[in-house]
Amino acid sequence: MRINRILRTKPFGHELEIKGWVRTRRDSKTVSFIEINDGSCLENLQVVIDPGIPGFDSVAREINTGCAVTVHGVARKSPARGQEMEVEASSIALTGGCDPAAYPLQKKRHSLEFLRTISHLRPRSNVIGAVTRIRSRLSFAVHRFFHERGFCQVHTPVITANDCEGAGEIFRVAAADGGDFFGRPAGLTVSGQLEAEAYALALGRVYTFGPTFRAENSHTSRHLAEFWMIEPEMAFCDLEEDIDLAEEFLKYLILYAFDNCSADLALFSRFVDKGLEKRLRRVLEHDFARITYTEAVELLQKSGRSFEFPAEWGMGLQSEHERHLCEEVFNAPVVVTGYPADIKPFYMRRNDDGKTVAAMDVLFPGIGEIAGGSQREERPERLEAVMRERGMDPAAYQWYLDLRRFGSAPHAGFGVGFERLLLFVTGMKNVRDVIPFPRTPGHI
Ligand code: 4AD
Ligand code: MG
After folding, report:
1. Pocket flag, ligand 1, residue 191 (CB < 6 Å)
2. Is the CB of residue 112 less than 8 Å from the CB of residue 433?
3. What is the pLDDT of residues 109-120, one digit of tens each?
4. Boundary (domain end) residue, out of 70, 103, 136
5. What is the CATH number for 224?
6. Which of 11, 84, 102, 104 has the fewest CB atoms within 10 Å distance of its CB?
7. Residue 317: nearest ligand to its CA?
8. What is the pLDDT of residues 6-57, one digit of tens each?
9. Which residues, by Cβ under 5 Å, contact ligand 2, an ion?
10. 376 within 8 A of 369, measured Cβ to Cβ
11. pTM to 2 decimals?
12. Could you tell me the residue range of the domain that residue 206 belongs to?
């Protein structure tokens, strides 16, 4: 039985089989104690071994931190403090040895930086194990949220000829022989949005959740070259409804983590970030603040703070600005709307003032931007004019214009960076530590 079930069901007196990895071994005069972890939960199970039991003699010297074992034994109430049960082994077999002199993971706590250098072994550490379980559960919760609300999942392509964000941060895709495989330039997707729009304008409410690639040379704790993005897209939907959904979605995931990942979350509140649970609870209990970009710039200018980059209308908000708004001004997540058209992608709907677009960014304390979205330009002439202004070839995006030509409807959506969400939920500080195998400039 897996350890999470054993700890939950407390099968005192029952014969059990446990398979896992030894975390620690201690020997007293008469017995040996090993702590086994099988990955099903953060907790280890203590096994008490009488040296006389079958199998032990031949492997006794090889039972060390890191080795894989199969144990049979009976669950007993533990006399030790801090644990309710232990297993009294009746037999033990070594499945895979582990040379303690060569094994890089020892009993002590290693730094996250060190763990990154052994990305194939770091899942055996408590912290990365906990991150990985939370990531998996929240991934499931993403699907559950959308399915409960009648959304249809669309598997948008990973290889595409579009540059959705128009930032030119595309990884090119080519066949190894250098041939022109697709007959035109292709790359890895920077966003599934454009394709999701085609499906939203047929199925009404859709979402994509998949790997996303950006060749941006950002060496920050918030950027990855390969990350996972969640992108809902809704027909007959305006910006207000879009923001409402984003707020509901982010709160749902945080609540899901509270309800389903409490033991793993407790590790982060103890060792990573003491204020974590309070911060999570605050987000659940308060409405997100909603302000316009123009108001945001005014607030920043009036703040009296000297930023590295002064806030100025027409410039993008820096993460120092975003964090100031969340952490100092509102002490809550903030949704900023109505950004200048010039600093946002081509597809966003132009507001009546002619200068701004129906964009929204969701900013979180400690993180900055966690989600970005917009109402889309559904008026074909407007959209085509913007494409020409930006030097895009309308012919290459004829299919996208067609969506406006045939049965156009107001529609909107947003994208949440899954790793940034995980930073918020776990209190971890670097996106490299919440994805199994991080890809960043100069590192694969
Ligand atoms: O703001 P972005 O670029 O928006 C889009 O791609 C839209 N097409 C989304 C949509 O409307 N459907 O990216 C969305 C989110 C960001 O807010 C951020 O959380 C995350 O994706 N993100 C990254 N996460 C990790 N590493 C990177 N390099 C990221 N770039 C964006
Ligand atoms: Mg953005």
Report:
1. yes
2. yes
3. 899 999 999 999
4. 103
5. 3.30.930.10
6. 102
7. 2
8. 999 999 999 999 999 999 999 998 999 999 999 999 999 999 999 999 888 8
9. 372
10. no
11. 0.97
12. 122-433
